[in-house]
Structures are given as C-alpha cells and as structure tokens.
Write a structure and sequence with these properties.
The protein is of the alpha+beta class. It contains 7 helices and 7 strands; from the N terminus they run αααααβββββββαα. It has helices at residues 2-15, 23-38, 59-64, 69-82, 88-100, 178-198, 204-216, and strands at residues 108-114, 119-124, 128-133, 142-145, 149-155, 158-163, 171-174. A 7-stranded antiparallel beta sheet has the order 4-3-2-1-7-6-5, covered by helices on one side. The longest helix is centred in the C-terminal third of the chain and has 21 residues, at 178-198. It is elongated, with a radius of gyration of 19 Å.
C-alpha cells in the first residue's frame, strides 16, 4: 500500500508539472503507468480511443507538439506493448526508477518539531532524510542517507529514525497531523526501497528502453 501511494504521489507531481519531465520520457512513463493500471496491452480490448479517460501526459507536453490525442495514444501504446509480461508492481517500480532520474525530482518538506519543541523542516528525497532549521532550507542541520537508516517508525505523531550504527542514538521528531504522517511514512518507505533496489543493476531490457527513450521516442 505504501509503495502504491508513493507511486501515485510521484505520478501526480509529474503530470501536474511540479517535476519537469522531457516529452520522450513522458511517453515512456505513460506506458509504464498503463502497464501498472491495466496489465498487458490486449489489442482486442485496448482499441484506439480506450485511453481517452486516462490522464497520460503533462499539459505542457501536449501543448508543445502538434499531435492529436489519437497520435499520442498510439505512441504510448507502442511502448506499452513492449512491457508485455511485466507485473503491475514491477511496472510501478520501473516508473519510479525513471522518475528518480529526472533532475527536479524533488525534496518534499514537512513541518516537524524536535523533542525540545523547536520547529524544523524534514526533507525527504531520493538520497535520504535531512533536518533543516526554519530559516535555512539549503543547508541541512543533520542528514540521514538511506544507506545509514535501519528503520523508520511512527506512533501517532512521534517518528523514530533508527540508524544502522547501533551505537548512534535514535533520532526522534514529531509531526502535527496523522494524514501528513502517513504521507511522510509512504515517502520514506518508497524512497528507501527504491534506493535499495537501485543498487541492483537494471535488466538488459530496461537498459535498452532507457536508451531508446533517450534517443527520442518522439522521433
């Protein structure tokens, strides 16, 4: 459930242009999103026009090229067909791995307090967790790379970060609202898992697709 929430958050950030995504990568991401949502492309079921209800590409990309919705759909379906046999969860993971390569793939900031009640920011990104003073979001006061975090847990409003180094103290902070806490946890779990998986090399097939996307899927 956590990974799916994380995936939906990242997808929404890309589609709403909070995170800049080049047109050719947008098409490849859309094809993974279709595999994650519908499974394998089935020509007898997924006919032309079947994706009209789906939000597929950022508006900026749609406006940038003189292509009809049908032409965009055709390009996405061509890539989608290449993902045959890819499990839905794996398609979500491939989407997230591609998204992590985007330059503006962002830091999410949250208002937190430490044990003393001092107001701080928590930054969650692809590399780890950072704690910032309210006056300075550029230089972290303290940082926790994913490679050094053993466990993150929360109970109501209290979060605990347990480092891998057992001699190091746990870091405890407090976030104000349960809904926000669930979002923090989903982002932490999603980014942490992705970080661990990214240390495993891509399959040859995924490497080839990335290369083709770079060469211009809109060519």
């Amino acid at each position: 459930m956590g990974k799916r929430l994380f995936y939906l958050q990242v997808k929404d950030a890309i589609l709403s242009d909070e995170v800049y995504c080049p047109p050719e990568t947008s098409v490849l991401l859309a094809s993974y999103a279709m595999q994650a949502k519908y499974g394998d492309l089935q020509p007898e079921v997924h006919r032309a026009g079947c994706l009209t209800a789906d939000r597929l590409l950022p508006q900026r990309v749609l406006s940038q090229f003189k292509l009809s919705p049908e032409e965009w759909e055709k390009r996405i379906m061509t890539w989608w067909a290449d993902h045959r046999g890819l499990a839905r969860e794996q398609a979500m993971l491939e989407y997230l791995k591609l998204a992590q390569d985007l330059e503006m793939y962002g830091v999410n900031y949250f208002d937190i307090r430490n044990k003393k009640g001092t107001e701080l920011y928590l930054g969650v990104d692809a590399l780890g967790l950072n704690i910032y003073e309210k006056s300075d979001r550029l230089s972290p006061k303290v940082g926790f790379p994913w490679s050094e975090i053993r466990n993150i847990s929360f109970n109501d409003k209290k979060f605990t970060i347990k480092p891998i180094d057992k001699k190091a103290n746990d870091f405890v902070f407090y976030a104000p609202r349960l809904r926000i806490n669930k979002r923090i946890l989903a982002l932490c779990m999603g980014n942490h898992e992705l970080y661990m998986r990214r240390r495993k090399p891509d399959t040859i097939e995924v490497q080839q697709m990335k290369q083709q996307a770079l060469e211009g899927a809109l060519g």
